[in-house]
Fold each of these.
Amino acid sequence: MFALYALATVVGAVAVLVVAIRSRRRSAPPPLPDAGPVPTFKVVALGSRGSGKTLLLASMYHQMQTPSGRSYFLTAPYEQVVLLNQWFTEVADTSRAWPAGTSVGETREFVFTVRTRAPSGALHTVMNIGYLEYAGGLLTDAQAPGSTGQAELLQRIDSAHALVGIIDGYRVRQCLDGQYEGQMRLQQSLTAMINLMMLVSCPITFVITKWDILRDIDVDEEARLRSVRKYLMSNNGFRDLVQAHSPHRVVRLIPVSAVGPDFTELDAEGRIAKLPDGEMHPTNVDAPLSAVVPDVFEQVERSLDKAALHAALDQVRRQTRLGPVGALAELGTFVLNAAGKVLGPLGGQAAGFVGDAALELLKAGRDRSADPLAHLDRRLGEVDRTIEEFRLARRKVLRDFQSRIDVLEGRLPSSRLSGED
Amino acid sequence: MAPSPTGWPFLIAAGRHRDYSILLAPEFLVQDLDYGFLDEVVKPGTGQPQVVDVHTRAGRRLTVVSATHPLTPADAAETHDEHGRPMRLLYGFVCVHRIVEPDRADLEAAFAVALDAYRRFLRDEDSPVVTAGQPFTLRSAVIRHPEPVGARAADQAFGARPQWPARVGVPAIAAADGAFGARPQWPARVGVLAIVAAVALTVTLVLWLRPQPGVPQPCPTVTVGAVPCTPTATFACPGGGVRRIGC
């Protein structure tokens, strides 16, 4: 008897709770867009020891911590900002040596928050980017018994939204100069990366670091990149990887320099030395992070059923039943469900973000969105100006990501890899 | 009288082209293949020794005292790697007891052994071996019965006051947890307490909401058809009992 009372009480409580939640959902206004957590895209940079992972990270943050013509900028937890600035300062100081290499114990994940300032002056958080920093030896060397770092790195690679493969420009330089040491080290690095990258299903961006020391290959940057690309594609493993992945996902080859062309030279021993009066002008360091979201969504589009996607986009245009916010959320939910494997867990309020990203980044969304979006924006304005402002700002950021990559591809067509080479 | 406490030296370092690896580890850990944790808990410092309490993968509870030494011309012919970066030695000693305050002499003893191991490594970087470190008598003050504490920076060691941070706190659980940062773990006691509280709350609610005994009221009457079907719903009768609708 007592058990029956208990059961009845629990059922009643659940019923009351359900009714309360349902009525609250009906009456409550949409949540403030900036109140909750935002989606997080996880990025892992694969690169051997000395390939320039840490310098790229420091320079990338230094350049992206202010808008500099973009609609967005990055922030990070303050202790990480201190560390990144410390590394950058150490690099920039021509009277000091390069920073020491990263040890296994210094492995850490940096969390960059993409923020934007709306015309009203309000600051909005758009998304997070997790970026793993680790010792290159974890990728290439056998680990000590009892060490867990390598296993955890592999786990991170497996769950990453995008991989950045760091190709050491210094090794490329050595290879092009016919040095055996360079060929051996580049092969070792490529083998380690390719082995892991063959198994992933996320976009891949190869980054050639230390681009500045390759400047004398050709005056024209595109011609220079074409030469390096041709050399890399002559490597069987690299070519096979590109051929295997490029029909299904984006594979890029981006030349970057964390310090720029006016900061270093090769000394008599063939080492990279800082110029006494060197000035830092980093190049393309923002491109790898800018490519993450557009590349993920290009892959999403490839994986989606076209008819279903068009139907979902039409639903957003009509947005008769759910209203504009609900229609976008429904589009986001549709994309999340249909391309869950590509997107993986994003966390935060993913549906709204994905809905906006689908409209801005999917070709089908862009083709259909000009007029309907304006109409949608007017309707959103009726719902809540704060939401409207946030969504417009977020879409501007997504457009800027895409624009950055479009500009790069326009300037350096060889930066998009395909198996046709 | 208890025997003097002992420490075992270790070294983690990178070479001219080879990345950081463990080059010297306590003999008893090498024998049991249980020294990999050193890679993950020993981090480069800014001059002050670091003291970290850890659990190894095999369940050993140890204290690791470490320091960082930038390579100098007196140590090796080359002090920078092939990328022009300064090379440094992460060295120190391991103790089965808690270290209250590391003694400079103990770190010097560990450094001497570590430097020998490093010079051997530099002679052939491509074939690194892990040297088994032998125990030496410690001068550092120890607590023989471990207590569950986190790491402590030896901020008063060597008579020098640290500039910043004054104390470095690395929880033992985080240190043992590996390279990718601490994962907060709730103590089991909290979970047990939560369950007990939930059960107690449920029982209280049930007893509070239970109707007073009275005259049993009739259950609702439902006509059941003759078509074969499966039970679909139950109702609790106000006076007790359950009526099932269906068949």
Note: The longest helix of chain B spans residues 188-209.
Amino acid sequence: MIEINNLHKSYKMGANSLHVLKGLNFSIKEGELVAIMGSSGSGKSTLLNILGMLDEADSGEYTLDGVPIKNLNETKAAKYRNKFLGFIFQSFNLINYKSAMENVALPLYYQKVPRKQREEKAIKYLSQVGLKEWAHHLPNELSGGQKQRVAIARAMAAEPKVLLADEPTGALDSKTSYEVMDLIQKINDDGNTILVVTHEEDIAHMCKRIVHLKDGVIVEDKKVDQVRASQYV
Amino acid sequence: MFNKDRWKEILEVLTSNWFRTVLTAFGVFWGIFILIILLSAGKGLENGIMKDFGDIATNTMFMWSRATTKSYKGLPKGRSFIFKTDDVSSIRENVPDLRFISPRNQLGGFGGANNVVRGLRTGAYNVYGDYPEIIRQDPMSITAGRFLNYSDIEEKRKVAVIGEGVVGGLYDKGEEVLGTYIKVQGVNFMVVGTYKKKSNGGDGEEGQKEIFVPFTSFSQAFNRGNDVGWMAITANDGTSITEIKNNIMAVVKENHKVHPDDQRAVGHFDLYEQFQRVQSLFGALRFVAYFVGILVLLSGVIGVSNIMLIVVKERTKEIGIRRALGEDPWSIKLQILMESIFLTIISGMAGISFGALFIYLINTILDMNGPVDMFANPSVSLGVVIGALIILIVSGLLAGFIPAQSAIKVRPIEALRTE
């Protein structure tokens, strides 16, 4: 599903340049649930941004579902993001003057799906994350866990190839974190490919594979026995 | 163009901070309001002054003879001469593009002695010997009977057309006027018509106290021979009398052996030139109105642009999220532009409406209090309103352009980073 070959990225900071990713190679197959771990500054967010087409690598190859991702202009990148990727952010990033349903329907709106269908689909995904009754509430009327579940529903709405989660539990207490992870695991059980960036060991162990980044290189890439989050809920 | 979700969003954004939106809108509102008011005030002044010109054919000059100031062909300077009826035909032969050439003779004058008698009543009136064309150059409406015609001229009939003011002075109220006789300096003329002139202002009353008689009868009755007191000459439409007046004067100078360079021997009054001068004054006024109005509008537009920039800044993160979710940058740009245009047009329309209301009020007050000198019926044409709308759309586009550009310049990753 995701194929990365010798990926390099550096940031210019005035006169100095900071080499963040130093030749990464790895691939993710369909249906995997991968955790990318690393301390801050290890380059994990940069990697996620490149995978999410929010940023571009300096050199190296990136293939997503057989499509080479390079030389994208903004319009094309937006289209690919919409079609291939679903984002889950640490700070939820819901649009606060839109109701939960409208937030979930947003990616479909960009696909020019007719209004009625959009709303039906949004309700469907909201009920999947258990928030059907909250469909018409604004984000600030929801708890943190609920917000993240709305965000997950939104990421799923466009039926993307890959879900990218950037510290999805970073702003949540551990109980809610497990709830969210339980949801992510369930979505993965349905066959969705999910990438989770985290620095929490217990969250990482709820995935099926852990990729350890340190100073821009992969120091460890191992399969783990998945810890089911449901046992903590 | 019509997209329910987009409009919903535009309204959401603009109504999320009412106070700011209204303040911003006020800049544009005020600009267009001032523009409308200035233009209509200019138009009101123009209407007022044009009314004073009345229906007079403005492409007209009046010409009379004076003493020469240069000796020529053995004739001394300081010599007086008088236009003759031959001059009329030679002008017609030599100068093309003339519509009317009316030779005129005149008795009496402003505040002159009594010169007209009817029974026991007397009055001092201007008496003109005229050709029928004069009614086209100095329009008047015939209220009874008829005006002079060419049979009168040819048969030298002693008939007269008198003004309503003359009727008021010489006749009792309700008395039959047509067919009666008035005695002008001892000569009887039969009244065949009465007229009323539209011109108002200072000489409005004087204009009603005139008596028109056929030129030929006038010459014979008052012993003028072939003399012509002065002439009223109108050029064809499309030719300005100002351009050809020198040719006309050259002809009469030649006829009367006046030095061609003698500027003072022939006096004239060029109505067209005066008219042009007034016209160019209005042109200048319109320019000032547009200049001031558009500058005020511009400051309003800059205000809108500023606020849109702030809105974009405030929504940086939101825009980042939308782009991460796959919104086309063009769609974001369009959104910002539409917000800006919408705000400008709504506030502009309010400005136009209030301007129109204001003009309506002024007109109502003017109507209630009767006419005012040099000001009448302030108004703006539909063209101006459409022009103002176009200006608004363009300025809305301009106002939104920079913010829209800056909205899509922010890369989604940077937008998302701002926590």
Note: Chain A touches chain B through 27 residues (CB under 8 Å).
Amino acid sequence: MNNGVVDPMLEIEDLVHCYGAVTALNHVSVSAAKGEFLTILGSSGSGKTTMLRVISGLEMPTSVRRLRIGGQDVAHLPAAKRNCTTVFQSYALFPHMNVVENVAYGLKIRKVNGPDALKEARRALAMVQLEGKADRRISQLSGGERQRVALARAVVTQPAVLLLDEPLGALDERLRQDMQIELMELQRSLGMTFVYITHSQEEALTMSDRVVLMSHGRIVQSGSPLDLFDRPESRFAAGFMGYENILEATLVAQDGTLGTVEFPGGLRIRGVVTADGLKVGGTVAIAIRAERISPVSAEAPESVEATLTNRIYRGKYTDVTVATGAGPLRLRSWHGVGSETEEIRRVGWNTTDAVIFAAQ
Amino acid sequence: MSEMQQTAGASGTATVGRQGFLRALAGRLADMNFAVTVILSTWFVLVIVPIVVLFAFSFFTTVQFRTVYEPTLDTWIGLFSSGRWEVTLRTLRIALTVTVIELLIAFPFALWLAKGCRSGTVQAVCLAMLTIPFFLDMSSRTIVWRAILGQSGLVNTMLLGTGLVDTPVEWLLYSEVAVHFGMVVSLFPPMVMPIYLAINLIDDTLLEASNDLGASPWQTLSRIIIPLSLPGVMAGVVFCLGPALAAWVEPGMLGGGFVNLISNSIESAYSALRYPVVAALSAFVILLLLLLLAAMYLIARRFGDPSSVSVFRG
């Protein structure tokens, strides 16, 4: 899946990492191109943080066939010798240094002379709009400002790869959204490879060029945000990406990527097959997002008869549950649209909005 | 407290329950103030006042075993004209040597115990071992060394038995070496503990961040660990230097009368009932300690960037 990457800044092949008897990473391969924003998405325990620690060198992998950063083999190099830096979840700013000293730390370590290091550090601080607070103590900064200092400190040495470990996790909703945009802009202006760890699908979809979805130490799926959002290849991916309707049925026909499934009552639905190796006649799962389903009139092509069972007003939108031949389906419509109070007899969707993959 | 009441009064719509809560909180704060006042005044009466009285006593004199309550500098002048410079310098030299040795051994040990030792059991055992000396009286702990270091002691018997020496090694006991040794052993826990606690408080991710930013272990040690553990080092030095300056058991038991320190002068003055001399000597030790600490503070401020010192400035 990584063959398409040109000019790779990060290459990992067949990485295995165990903590005692627990396998945190199970034969994982990932790569990232120069200037790419790669997001590793997964819930806690998926192995995403371990992956980051292995890349940074804070953890030495149990085994790896290839681990390169900026073309250099780093599999046996200590963290200090690797051309990558980390923005830690807790920021890990040095409490005994002020803001600009924190940022200049990496430069001073590299024997850049004092005045030059401070000048560079102030430039990095200007980049994150904190030049006015260069002489503040860390304890005088807000969470968002600390986050920016950590960012400036990590990019000031111009590493080949910047690793970000859920850097927005500790910020409040509003600030997080602003920082997402800022991070993207910063990444573009620096042209630096970012490897971003998060458990939030929203962050992953908003910021990334490519998303790698992980579960239990394995890569479940990787691709563009749109691929992951619209073409999940497994039940786990569909569930993680927020598909509300995942139903089991029997695959009765497949023509290229177009598949047809049949429900126990005889109802047939068509959809896009995203997974390889499905057998006609076998049990599969079909998934449709609630917001892609809407009430339709009788002549619509992909539609089923439906009876309203529940309607819940949720502020911005209304959640509707209907009973159909395929089982209960959830619909979501923006609150205030005309059809909201109408009686529902049929619901429908675009064929490409339904995805078919293995049942397990 | 009045501020609390104002807040409670200002929020006119506040419910009775909320006001009750604030009042209870104000009451709690008042209790705390009261407790702090009690503790501070007790401390003042029991510790500070005696030192002041002691200092005052040093300006009196004794004539025929009776204290003359007339302020004079005679005792202080007598203190330095009677050749006590030598004793003072020896005390200072031994106390500082012992403190430096302690620091050189204790810091690496504390660093290992706090960050290097991965086994919780080993750590617990080490900490428990460090508290053992506090179970025993210092004299009993020290006197044992006579049986080990003496001319017919354990060490010399072994040395003679293995043929490494022909005659017993004499400088092992009743010498400055023995006094140094005794002090280093007994003052190790007070030096290790504060340093261990200070290093233990340093977040591991700070060390990882330093490493990640390219620092070698030595650079992380000198730029992160040492500056952040300075408060513990300062505390360790105080807990070691103070007792070392006032050491009395080790020079008495292991020095065998050959190593005279200020404490021995205090003791002999005390036996002669010359209380003003006792007072002057004790005050002198306290002044020495304060001077040394002030010097150390200045050195520490020089040593790191100014911000590192503010860690223990608060």
Note: Chain A has a mean pLDDT of 89.
